[in-house]
Amino acid sequence: MRQSVAPSRISHAASLASQADNAAATSRLQEKKKEFEAVAALERASALFLKRIEGLADDCEVMADAGQVHGQVLEQWPLMFQSLSLFLSSREQYLADPGDDTLPLTGERLVRVPLDELQADTPKQS
Questions:
Q1: pLDDT (tens digit per residue) in 9-26
Q2: Residue 94: CB partners within 8 Å, gap ≥ 6?
Q3: What CA–CA distance (Å, rounded) separates 83 from 89?
Q4: Using an 8 Å Cβ cutoff, are 108 and 87 in contact?
Q5: For residues 69 and 75, what is the distance between their CA atoms, to the nearest angstrom?
Q6: Scanning 34, 38, 114, 123, which has its CA 20 to 30 A from the CA of 62?
Q7: pTM of the prediction?
């Protein structure tokens, strides 16, 4: 008796379906790999962006500190000009009347006394 061809046709159809499923699975795997690579690239770009933003934040903090120091220096200028004008006026008085004994013959020195440190040391001594 002759063998039937039907079982081989079913097996051949299953083989074709299996190949189609493999091709679809391979295609889907390739898409997922591309998606994973894109997500990994996005993560690397985000990390680089974060480092740059943190660097900018550090620079802004340095600029803020520099601004405070600049403000403190500018705050001292009026006091310096006042001290200089006092010194110049006393020098002009001496030059105008060198025979005046009430004016000191030796130059007076301007000394900056750190009041903050003195006030901080006063409670420690008590």
A1: 556 656 666 777 888 889
A2: 100, 103
A3: 10
A4: yes
A5: 10
A6: 114
A7: 0.46
CA gap 6, 14 in Å, rounded: 12
What is the sign of the dihedral through the CA atoms of 15, 19, 20 and 24? Answer: positive
- Report, as an integer, the average pLDDT of 38-46: 97
In the prediction, which pLDDT does 104 show? 55
Question: Looking at the predicted structure, is the pLDDT value of residue 126 above 70?
Answer: no
Count CB neighbours of 113 within 10 A: 7
Pairwise pLDDT comparison (97 vs 109), residue with the higher score: 97
